[in-house]
Design brief:
Elements: H1 2-22, H2 24-30, E1 41-46, E2 98-103, H3 104-115, E3 129-139, H4 149-163, E4 182-191, E5 194-202, H5 209-229, E6 232-240, E7 244-247, H6 249-254, H7 263-277, E8 283-291, H8 298-315, E9 319-324, H9 332-341, E10 347-352, H10 358-366
């Protein structure tokens, strides 16, 4: 029975996984998961999965199965003529949504399958050591919590048979202290690959609420994928207009300024942060910058290019620049990056026109497997 239940549960999970993948673009573009996120799991509304249920009527009512029903009577409580129903006709499809929980790891796997994302090859090992206990054998002493009941029983049975005290007609086996067997373990230590994601965003007046929401949704999925790839991960946030500063996650997505834009101010903080806190030999470093493409001047753009070429790119796995389309932005910065870095695989650019372009942008950023 337990095996049958496990098989049914496995089939249901496969159906759910298929439904999530089928509707993944909608989940991404509408941001439906953002308000349903827990620490390790996400609740997802799955459409068009009907779960059969029995509904019991009042015992005082007649009908088939009780009372005066006759063979051939229809099942149900309605007394109207065939084809008649209560209420007015509706216009839309019936609602058959079921909320299921999936782990963030499962969600990352579905994203990886849909976008054919390769697993990331770690370039650094952290000084942090991960310790894991692994059961490797059996020994004669240990705590009761690690007692191996099957081995204990077999040892006691062998002893009683050898001594001639075992009676097959009354198969009672009583272990003694010498019969007790316990699991033994070994602690394995291995370095954990660590990663840091450094998000930078233009918060000047031209980056409106819709542009920030696009960045928020995309960063959720980027986080989900990278956390699947690394045991330990940190996230840092930098906002900028004419000046830059480090902030927390909530401030990152809610702040809106009205000043000018100097992108180099964010790149300077990013470069110093990497130099001071994240040695490239020990960390996998992922800077992401989101902007509408406006910058204060050509001179500042050249300074950005210098910072990228000399400090940020040599340390980072990849540098990702996402340009969010805005009615107020010029969109020039992505052209400048392409002009100066050409086909350099260390720098990846993506144009994000609207929410429907988020999934493609994620594929562009993470598709290199670096």
């Amino acid at each position: 029975m337990s095996l049958k239940i496990d098989q049914d549960h496995g089939r249901f999970r496969a159906i759910v996984r298929g439904k999530i993948r089928e509707n993944l673009r909608r989940y991404v573009s509408k941001g439906e998961l953002m308000g349903k996120q827990g620490k390790e799991r996400v609740s997802i509304p799955i459409p068009q999965i009907d779960i059969p249920r029995f509904r019991f009527a009042d015992k005082q009512q007649g009908g088939v199965g009780q009372g005066d029903g006759e063979p051939g009577d229809g099942v149900g409580q309605g007394q109207g003529k065939p084809g008649e129903g209560a209420g007015e006709a509706g216009q839309g499809e019936g609602e058959h949504a079921l909320e299921v929980e999936v782990t963030l790891d499962e969600l990352a796997d579905i994203l990886g399958e849909e976008l054919a994302l390769p697993n990331i090859e770690s370039k650094g090992k952290s000084t942090i050591v991960d310790k894991k206990d692994r059961y490797v054998g059996i020994r004669n002493v240990g705590p009761n919590s690690l007692r191996h009941f099957k081995r204990t029983y077999k040892t006691a049975l062998k002893r009683q048979i050898a001594l001639g005290s075992y009676d097959a007609k009354k198969p009672i086996v009583i272990p003694t202290k010498d019969d007790l067997r316990f699991r033994s373990w070994k602690t394995d230590e291995e370095p954990v690959a660590n990663a840091v994601i450094i998000y930078m965003m233009d918060v000047s007046g031209s980056m409106g609420d819709e542009q920030k929401e696009i960045v928020r949704i995309e960063s959720f999925w980027i986080d989900t994928w990278l956390r699947r790839q690394y045991e330990g991960i940190e996230t840092r946030f930098i906002i900028h207009d004419a000046v830059a500063r480090e902030v927390d996650r909530d401030t990152f997505f809610r702040t809106r300024e009205s000043g000018g834009t100097m992108i180099s101010s964010a790149y300077k903080i990013c470069a110093k942060m990497i130099e001071d806190e994240y040695p490239p030999g020990q960390w996998n470093i992922y800077p992401f910058h989101f902007s509408d493409g406006d910058n204060w001047s050509v001179d500042d753009t050249l300074l950005c290019v210098e910072l990228l070429r000399n400090q940020i790119l040599p340390a980072a796995n990849v540098f990702c620049y996402g340009q969010v389309e805005s009615p107020y932005g010029s969109g020039q910065f992505i052209k400048d990056l392409k002009e100066h870095f050409g086909d350099d695989e260390q720098l990846i650019t993506s144009e994000i026109r609207d929410r429907d372009a988020i999934l493609g942008s994620i594929g562009e950023f993470l598709g290199k497997g670096k």
